[in-house]
Amino acid sequence: MKLALTAGLSATALILTTGPALAAADDWHETPTGVDALLPYSISTGGGALWTVGAIDTRDDFQPVAARWVNGKWQTTPQPAGHGRLGDVAVRTADDAWAVGAQWAPGALWSDLLVQHWNGKAWKQVAGPTPAREDGSEFYTVAIQGGQVWAAGSGPGPTEGSSEGIVYRYDGKRWIGVNDAISAASLFIYDIAPLSRTNVWIAAENGIKHYDGQHWKDAALPGGPSPAVHLRGLAAVSPSDIWAVGHREDPVLRRRPLVYHFNGKVWSEVSTPADSGELWSVNLVKGQPVAVGESPRGPYLLRMTGTGFVRQPDPAGAGLLFSSTVTGGRLWIAGKAADNTAAYVGFSRLGSG
Fold first, then answer.
1. In 3-state terms, what secondary structure has residue 16?
2. Alpha-carbon gap, residue 131 to 229, rounded angstroms
3. Residue 14 has what pLDDT?
4. Do 248 and 269 contact (CB within 8 A), yes or no?
5. CA-CA distances (angstroms) from residue 45 to 88, 112, 244, 332?
6. CB atoms within 10 A of CB 352
7. Best label site of 191, 256, 291, 329, fewest CB within 10 Å?
8. Which segments within 171-253 are labelled E, that is strand?
9. How far apart are CA 204 and CA 218, in angstroms?
10. Which of 6, 37, 17, 31 is nearest to 235 (CA)?
């Protein structure tokens, strides 16, 4: 997740928006990474820089990967950790980016937190926090706000085989735990949107949570708390314009795409197609939310129109999609290729209409 850089319209204006499809299937342009067996879990931009991070799947291990877009091609960068994976990257400028994930020693049963910083020349590993129960911890998401780094993910719970959510803030010198019973009950935290130190949202395995600088609180979602609701991605345009995407368990469709919008006072559910699919990422394209994810058939893209979200043409050659970002008049997506054996990273040019 990244804070939305494009000024968003109000929720009312978004619902009234209509228009043609975002892009035809063949209007997407694949950009080969040159890395075999790459899983690009995240793609993000900031300050004119564009990065994708993930891991090489060697079948019996994972190796972290971070590649930047330079002169029209992806350029991989040496990694300080030899074993592990990067789940997310937050980019502030060309010489200031943070990536997080998990690392482990060869043959180890448990992972430790992985944090690294790009200084414009190289990635340097940064000592991460030490959770109360460290073995098996992993960061899934990272964001930068006010010069501070926020990271969240999952760690082992108090009983064998259980998990709990973890949230930390880095002030440049030390990691500060931002955890309580509510955040721990999140189980797995997939995205974080810090608007300020006293206004932080997380998308979690069991809903949306808010931090007011002292305590976490479950967001009041339509229909109340439900174990069938799973949130994956956030786009925070402003304190009164926030989007959350994921899926709801469905007895017929198995997983049905789910979108919520926050207007500064209440969360409301926005109409989505009655499809089998789940959403992982959402961004604002010309003020309109566009969400990406996966369906049983491969990629899944939704765009807001006058009647809610509608299905968009599948990008040719793409499979399931993990992440998206907007920069330089392009919507970028990252995930697996249609044949499920390689990565797909590509973009669609956004017209002036």
1. helix
2. 27
3. 33
4. no
5. 12, 26, 19, 10
6. 5
7. 329
8. 175-177, 189-196, 199-204, 207-211, 216-218, 229-238, 241-250
9. 10
10. 6
